[in-house]
Amino acid sequence: MHRSVRGLLACVTAGALWAGLPALTAVTAGVAVTATPAAALGNGLALTPPMGFNDWNAFGCDVSEQLIKQTADYFVSSGLKDAGYTYVNIDDCWQTHSRDADGRLVPDPAKFPDGIKGTADYVHSKGLKLGIYEDAGTATCAGYPGSLGHETTDAQTFADWGVDYLKYDNCNNNSDGSRADYVKRYTAMRDALAATGRPIVYSLCEWGEQSPWEWAGDVGNSWRTTGDISDNWSSMLSIAQSNMPLASAAGPGHWNDPDMLEVGNGGMTDTEYRSHFSLWSMMDSPLLIGTDLRKATPATLAILSNKDVIALDQDPLGKQATVLSSDGGRYVLTKPLANGDRAVALFNAGDQAQRISTTATAAGLPRRASYAVSDLWSHTAYNSAGTLAATVPAHGTVLLRVSGSAAAGAGALLDPPLLDTGLSDTPGALRPGVSGTVDTYATDLGALPASRVTVALHAPDGWTATAAGHTTSAVLPKGRTLTTPWRITAPAGTEPGYYALSGTVSYTGVPGRPRATSPLTGSVLVAVPPPSGTNALSDLDWVSATNDWGPVEKDHSNGEQAAGDGNPITIGGTVYAKGLGTNAPSTVTYYLGGRCTALDTTVGVDDEKNGKGTVEFEIEADGRQVADSGVLHNADGPKQLHADVTGADSVRLVVTDGGDGSDSDHADWADPQVTCG
């Protein structure tokens, strides 16, 4: 969507200077991109990533003094203030459309009857801080007066009102598109804020367009690294993946900002929201709540107030997590902590449960006989001999804190051993109404044996799951595995897709200590391969699909909202009766069952975007790329793709944003056909 419509796009964050900081060295247009981040801004602010609230994701322009005051009250009454949330931030649409006779910004008296000063005084009375929004252009994204050319006046106005945080956007900027212009505009506000003498966290919002992680370290306290986030899995994942490689730029006082939190807004599952919060905390991101806290569910509050997870984000060492591995959507991220511990995230970006593993030494800890391991979502303590592994649900994250100190490792021997539990990989798919066999496993990863081990498995309602082997073990030695086969039947008529199976493994560690219970999770695929002949993919049922805006559409373009709101698929003036309409980033997966040989399609950006949109189409067979369109622009028109999918169990259609964000990326798979034997 256009920036003026969609979240009024992304903003880069940075922090206000104290007066007297040296001027930024001039940057000329055409500077080569480097991996070396700029020096840190030395204003003494945001030494850990800012935490608080911003109204935009949940309210857009419907902001008011009442909302801000009620949110401040809720911070206190709910315990969120005690958890570390400090800033209550006002986004766009807080002002009138004209400056006053002295050239100063004017708060909308209907929305803010006590003005920003009165609102700030109230927020401060609660022991909290107030943030505000402006724009490094002639107008804000919603069309209110911008600060370009008014930096000195506006900065002093904010200081006079008692503002503590400024989010500074990038709409209507009159820019020549050069990095020098971006640096100039954002530096002007940095210097104006510094001249006020008031400590104001300065958050840059230039959407990552000029790679601010390379130059904004001594301009702001944080900077947006991407376009706006949306409340869906594809958007969150794409932004996280873009932000992960930028760890070297972050540190105390200068943070990468992958945008505000969507936790609680309803577009993702609680599992996905826990991953969202886990990744943002591992990446030392600002944690700015973007939901209506007055309506927050207990599950939402449990995520946002998890102090063990927040402690990773707020760790004073200020080291953003780095990626150890990411094969097949199985991510391992590790983050060093100030006390010598390591945080380890086992993150599953895939659409089915997957086993993910690493070791304590790979995470950066010294070699020990035993490690203390804390699961930060289940709040359970374990001991491990060094391997860290779990079967992670689709789109889920297991978040661990691991200590390698000798004392912690010895003390952890009183805790139960860490178990690796899950379902073994099962080739092929279950057919509705036909029994199949799956195996569960439980492996002792601890330094000591587990005893009195009992495995239980549960299937969805209407299914059957019957053990076909031993479900107990008197003793499970260190490094040994209990494997149990199960006969599973999905009812006739079950729709294609991945289905979660869950269970438990209960056991005893040190004799006399309480029994422990580890969750057992996994997923099975229910599907029927395509019939012989040539099949239009839009006539088949996919097993999974993700999309940035709205659902993937069959035989229509993507309308960005409800199913069926698109138009006829049209690329380069040609209308196609069959196809899939997506909005990048997107994935669509089909089960082939090894019966198919070729997939042929026409791809391109839909004409409805009027020349806008940049995407790349990829086809994967069993995780291996077998076709790639290269980056396509709207003006490129249709392109033919052919993929050899001989013998593949599954095929995945992938669309990425072409490297420039997802604005206008209506990507069409026109007339896609799969040939099967």
Q: How would you describe this structure to a colleague?
A:
This protein is of the alpha+beta class and 677 residues long. The chain is 16% helix and 33% strand. The strands form 8 sheets. The chain has an 8-stranded parallel sheet with strand order 7-6-5-4-3-2-1-8. It has a 6-stranded antiparallel sheet with strand order 9-10-11-16-13-14. Strands 25, 27, 30, 32, 35 and 37 form a 6-stranded antiparallel sheet that branches. Helix 6 links the parallel strand 4 and strand 5. Helix 7 packs parallel to helix 8 (270-282), helix 8 runs parallel beside helix 9 (298-304) and helix 8 (270-282) packs parallel to helix 10 (307-313). The radius of gyration is 27 Å and the shape is globular. The two termini are 41 Å apart.
Offer a concise description of the structure.
16% of the residues lie in helices and 33% in strands. By secondary structure, the protein is α+β, with helices and mostly antiparallel strands.
